[in-house]
Design brief:
This protein is mainly alpha-helical. Helix content is 71%, strand content 4%.
Length: 273
């Protein structure tokens, strides 16, 4: 019972931070399952991916999440992430990569993205000019921080699609949902506002996680369904809290929070483990 309560609490924290930052919560739950509950990496990844689906469903159906989601961009990203996730599942099925290598992929990915975010901490990618062109994939939304409607234009769309494919692969291999790549890439390289990138990523990663669940989830472990259910319950509660807090949180604070979390995860998997 204590383990289930701990998992619900961890799921709530992961869901809150995941919905704030568009990461799905997997990047927080994989270390929890590994280092607190002492589960093997493959098992931790499989259960974590189940919670990623819960985060995606919870946030995408809420008004706070729908306001910032870019549907046109999401459709393109979802196609590529699904293809990448399927490719990652193929790699796992044929044992072409070990769990330790997958862990290193997890750590290196976190470190690189943290550095990219910190280098572009104060970069602004929106304009208050309502006559500015949005292009085929850009859009407009009301920015709660600036208290005005802003416009943005998606740049380097091929980069976004390429990163999405890579995110699908990384998601399946490491159990983190893919948002850890998609959100910083959209914001840093494709000029998509962080709030939009986070909401769009959350919409996408639910589908991305499915191939990983099929390959990673320990269906033969009788304790796994209970842990997954506890994690999803916590994630659903935390996701709703995070979605309500997000509009009041400054973008700079969100970027710093995301960078700090990524650096901690990188140290755990590349140095301490």
């Amino acid at each position: 019972m204590l383990t289930l309560v701990q998992t619900i609490a961890a799921g709530a924290a992961a869901g809150c931070l995941g919905s704030l930052l568009g990461l799905g919560g997997g990047i927080f739950l994989v270390p929890f399952f590994q280092f607190v509950l002492d589960l093997p990496f493959a098992t931790a990844a499989g259960i974590s991916l189940m919670s990623v689906i819960g985060t995606s469903v919870a946030v995408s159906t809420m008004k706070a999440g729908r306001e910032f989601t870019n549907p046109r961009l999401a459709i393109g990203l979802q196609l590529l992430t699904a293809l990448g996730a399927t490719a990652g599942a193929f790699v796992l099925r044929h044992d072409w990569i070990s769990n330790r290598t997958a862990e290193r992929v997890f750590g290196v990915t976190a470190a690189v993205i943290a550095v990219v975010l910190l280098r572009r901490l104060d970069r602004r990618v929106t304009t208050s000019d309502q006559e500015a062109a949005t292009g085929s994939m850009g859009g407009r939304y009301f920015d709660p921080e600036r208290q005005e409607s802003v416009t943005y234009r998606v740049r380097r769309a091929p980069v976004a699609l390429g990163v999405s494919f890579a995110a699908g692969i990384v998601s399946t291999l490491s159990g983190i949902g893919g948002g850890v790549l998609i959100v910083p890439a959209l914001n840093s390289w494709c000029s998509v506002p962080l709030r939009v990138a986070a909401a769009t990523s959350t919409f996408v990663i639910g589908v991305t996680a499915v191939p990983g669940v099929i390959e990673r989830f320990p269906f033969d472990d009788p304790a796994a369904p209970a842990l997954a259910a506890a994690a999803v319950i916590g994630v659903l509660v935390g996701s709703r809290a995070g979605a309500h807090v997000a509009p009041q949180t400054p973008v700079r604070a969100l970027k710093m929070m995301l960078s700090a979390i990524l650096l901690i995860v990188a140290v755990i998997y590349l140095v301490l483990k």
